[in-house]
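At this stage, I wrote out one protein's amino acid sequence and its backbone structure tokens, and that material follows here:
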Amino acid sequence: MNYRELATAALEARKLSYSPYSNFRVGAALLTKSGKIFTGCNVESAAFSPTNCAERTALFKAVSEGEREFCAIAVAGAPEGGEAQYCYPCGVCRQMLAEFFSADCEVIVVRNEEDYKLYMFEELFPHGFGPGDLTDMY
């Protein structure tokens, strides 16, 4: 799996976004260590708080099918009818990814199939609270 393939999967997932309130469409493609790709899009609610981001949609789909080990996620976002931009996972998504991602998992923020930036997860969430923090408390 190369970065372009993962970027393309995130761009395709973005097309499925249900975002009538923000008009900001996001797609994500999550790569497991076993080589499977799980995609997700943002799904909004008029009540706002039940809204789910694309990254968490992909993560929840993967975990619900037994996957627990990941190596990369690509995220693609754009305003409805607007130009694509680099779209980074929000704080809630970073916290959920921290549950399963190691520091060297890759995060790819995508504008298009040719234009994307690559980060290590620890760059985006350097001092996150993870499962190891709970064991250190006792």
